[in-house]
Amino acid sequence: MLTCVMPAGRGTEVLEALRRETGVISAFAHHARGIGTHSLRHRIYSDEKQILTVLVDAVRADEVFHFLFYSAGLDSPHAGMLMMGHAFRGAGVVPLTETESAEPGQS
């Protein structure tokens, strides 16, 4: 399982590129908001991020990690972070084939 924290507004774009270029469809994006403080002046600020969660086989994890790192723009300072961990249980999303998605009685 990969979890990517990136600047707000980039999640949908990265998610679409992930699906189009790597074929990974077991992923979703959501929005997060929080507050923090600046350490020097103790000023409170708010920030919004986009969180992308991807479930992928261990064999492809490094490939997808590399793709997310660069497509989300995490190669620049203070852009976000990407974490990889084990999913103890999970079910990937499997697309329906054409025959399964047809109405019953239609071919």
Question: How does this model look, in words?
Answer:
- The protein has 107 residues and is an alpha+beta fold.
- The chain is built from 3 helices and 4 strands; from the N terminus they run βαββαβα.
- The chain has a 4-stranded antiparallel beta sheet.
- A hairpin with a 6-residue loop joins strand 2 and strand 3.
- Helix 1 (11-22) crosses helix 2 (61-71).
- The longest helix is centred in the first third of the chain and has 12 residues, at 11-22.
- The radius of gyration is 18 Å and the shape is elongated.
Summary of the model, kept short:
This protein has 107 residues and is an alpha+beta fold. Helices cover 25% and strands 30% of the residues. A hairpin with a 6-residue loop joins strand 2 and strand 3.
pLDDT < 50 stretches: none
The span between the termini is 37 Å
- State mean pLDDT (0 to 100 scale): 83
Helix content: 25-40%
- Radius of gyration, in angstroms, nearest whole number: 18 Å
**Beta strand count:** 4
Main structural class: alpha+beta
